[in-house]
Design goal:
With 196 residues, this protein is mainly alpha-helical. The protein has ten helices and no strands. It has helices at residues 3-14, 24-53, 56-72, 83-100, 102-106, 127-136, 140-151, 156-163, 167-184, 191-195. Helix 4 crosses helix 8 (156-163). The chain starts with a helix and ends with a helix. The relative contact order is 0.08.
Amino acid sequence: MPAGARTRAGEEMNGVATEGRRAPTDGARRDAEFTEYLAARQAALLRTAYLVCGDRHQAEDVLQTALAKLYLSWDKVRDRGALDAYVRRIVVNETTSAWRRPWHRRERATDALPETAAHHDAYDEGRSAALWAVVRSLPPKARAVVVLRYYEQLTEAETAQALGVSTGTVKSQCNRAMALLRERTPAHLHPREEER
């Protein structure tokens, strides 16, 4: 069989445009759609990644990896309404993979941070930082469940799908995480204290 015939047959089987290249409009369309999605959703996805990871730099890395994977499979995603769920799943999987890496176990956080310009949306008397410290004290999987359920406001089924676990696991993880949060939350941050 001549080499040209194999190439043509392979192109037809794979659905690739003639001469092994995609039509230029497909790539431009994909880039435009992806750029539009990125402009609309990047900030929200970064917040979610930060809450799942607990570290801004790791969140940026994880989100960058997730967006790169999304871009590579952009044409394969049929349900455009599920893009956020797909990216959240990648973020959770990448974060879990990072926790398992040996270098992560050797790395230690320090109290000395580089000087950066702080950005606060509103004055909160330090409550959100203190509350976030309590949330960060949760085990990684429990923290992921809390972030997806209460910050992202996903249903139990959506959270289970994003984490790749059963709905029952989400319920039990959430129950344990909320019990730990109730235990660990200082009295001055407790919502019932504000009512008094």
